[in-house]
Design goal:
The protein has 18 helices and 19 strands. The strands form 2 sheets. Strands 8-1-10-19-18-17-16-15-14-11-12-13 form a 12-stranded mixed sheet, with helices on both faces. Strands 4-3-2-5-6-7-9 form a 7-stranded parallel sheet, covered by helices on one side. The longest helix is centred in the first third of the chain and has 19 residues. The chain is 40% helix and 16% strand.
């Protein structure tokens, strides 16, 4: 299933739900029944051999969805064990109506203390929904822990209980689902951060709410969809001068591999010329490993200035280190108006300064680097990735790429979420390749925001191709051939 590209905050989706009921006139119980039907259909498609299910219901409308699912399962002839964490007299409105319909159909409501659900084929999580604003506590926490410890597959309704709908972070503990159904508007928290570990496959349904309802709000973010083709076809008379000259600066002693990977990525993405400015001691080795790289050993800023005069794009940071040599060269780069990609140690040096970037700069921090840039911790960054990427952009300007599962890109006007990539990318050198990819796209004329978004997607898609042989053991260098294949599609 193709998911919508528009993402919304929890409050925006609630407003859409209210508008559909109050202004369009769709009864709330009808929306609940549609949600339950869709979730039950996903359950049966995901586990067609299931004979028994346990449905865990909370006190709100998310619990009401669970009662609808349990009712449908009874009608299908499945064995149903419904575990309620709220007495029926605590239910209100549509949730109470759904619970009574389930009881009228012969359903039984169990407490967690009396129900033996451990032999069920599938579990349905309808506990907490999107209203969670603090860490999971009370009776819910041990139930979520028991669900996760059971090793029984889980369908989460609307959102895995315990996952924050806006921030995508776990609120103390959260249900790990194999499938998640979500409704009316895609919640932004489902697409980044911890969500990748907890949602499984995501299934969306509008519940028949008109598209016009979505247009009541400006989306809070967008899932990035790459253009097709990624780059325009080349003229038959094209030459290398038409596709830019990328200068990459870095490769402190012991880290020449980082700058070489970045340079190779820029080449494979189609940059016309690629030069490296690195330490004298190993400059020759960089060209020896890749003859197309023009590698220069430099020590002085005067030597760097000569190279900057020939460059159209600069990438600085891979293997740069934080020595005086690194800091002097970073200062020289900031004194130009060339398009820049700032990565790795260049970001750490930036965090100790008060510089503001120009609009053609792209910075690519991982959460730890982002924490240093924001004078906080990587954990704090991960607890609200959307707020963190917006704060980075507000503070430093330019285009910000906040790396991680569901990489975010913010150009000051729009936040996009990337969907390509896989856990095999958790290995050294991947960030160096990304900086080279973005540099190579900038060299071919893409603006900073487009180069960042397209580069992040291309990087992840190449890793997905490479991971067909397995995620474990995936190397940054494995992406290079696939980058060339993808950038030509």
């Amino acid at each position: 299933m193709t998911l919508p590209s528009q993402l919304f905050s929890v409050e925006q989706v609630r407003a859409m739900d209210r508008y559909a009921i109050d202004d369009i006139g769709i009864p709330g119980i009808e929306l609940m029944q549609r949600a339950g039907q869709f979730a039950f259909d996903v359950l049966m498609q995901g586990w067609p051999e299931a004979l028994s299910i346990a449905v865990f219901c909370g006190a709100g409308n998310n619990g009401g969805d669970g009662y609808v699912i349990a009712h449908l399962a009874l009608q299908k002839g499945l064995s149903v064990k419904l575990v309620a964490l709220a007495e029926i007299d605590r239910l209100k409105g549509d949730a109470l109506t759904a619970a009574r319909q389930y009881l009228d159909a012969g359903g039984v409501i169990n407490s967690i203390e009396t129900c033996d659900w451990q032999d069920c084929d599938v579990l349905v999580d309808s506990l907490l929904g999107t209203g969670l604003d603090r860490d999971v506590g009370g009776a819910y926490r041990p139930v979520i822990e028991a669900i996760n410890n059971s090793q029984i597959p889980v369908l989460a309704v609307d959102i895995p209980s315990g996952l924050h709908g806006d921030r995508g972070c776990v609120m103390g503990v959260a249900v790990r689902a194999q499938h998640t159904t979500t409704f009316i508007g895609m919640k932004q928290g489902l697409m980044t951060g911890d969500a990748a570990d907890y949602c499984g496959a995501i299934h969306y349904h509008s519940l028949g709410v008109p598209d016009s309802v979505l247009h009541l709000n400006q989306p809070s973010a967008w899932c990035y969809v790459p253009p097709s083709p990624l780059l325009p076809a080349r003229s038959a008379t094209a030459h290398k001068g038409h596709f830019g000259h990328v200068l990459l600066i870095g490769g402190e002693t012991g880290y020449s591999g980082a700058i070489r990977l970045a340079a190779q990525a820029a080449l494979r993405c189609g940059a016309g010329l690629v030069s490296v400015a690195t330490r004298v001691s190993h400059a020759g080795l960089v060209s020896l490993a890749q003859a197309e790289i023009m590698s220069h050993g430099i020590e002085s800023t005067d030597e760097l200035q000569q190279l900057l005069e020939k460059a159209t794009v600069v990438v600085i940071g891979p293997g740069l280190g934080q020595s005086d040599w690194a800091e002097q060269h970073l200062d020289s780069v900031f004194n130009t108006d060339l398009p820049l990609v700032i990565d790795a140690d260049a970001l750490n040096l930036l965090s100790a300064s008060s510089r503001v970037l120009h609009k053609r700069c792209v910075m690519t921090p991982h959460p730890g680097e982002a924490g240093r840039l924001l004078k906080t911790t990587g954990r704090a960054v991960q607890s609200d990735r959307y707020a963190s990427v917006r704060q980075l952009q507000n503070t430093y300007h330019g285009v910000v790429v906040l790396k991680g599962a569901g990489t975010l890109v913010d150009d000051g006007e729009l936040i996009t979420v990337n969907s390509s990539g896989n856990p095999g990318m958790a290995s050294g050198g991947m960030g160096d390749v990304l900086s080279g990819v973005i540099g190579g796209l900038l060299a071919q004329g893409l603006d900073a925001a487009t180069a960042a978004r397209c580069g992040v997607w291309l990087h992840g898609a190449a890793a997905d191709y490479a991971a067909r042989q397995g995620q474990r053991g995936l190397l940054a260098g494995d992406l290079l051939g696939f980058l060339r294949e993808l950038v030509n599609q």
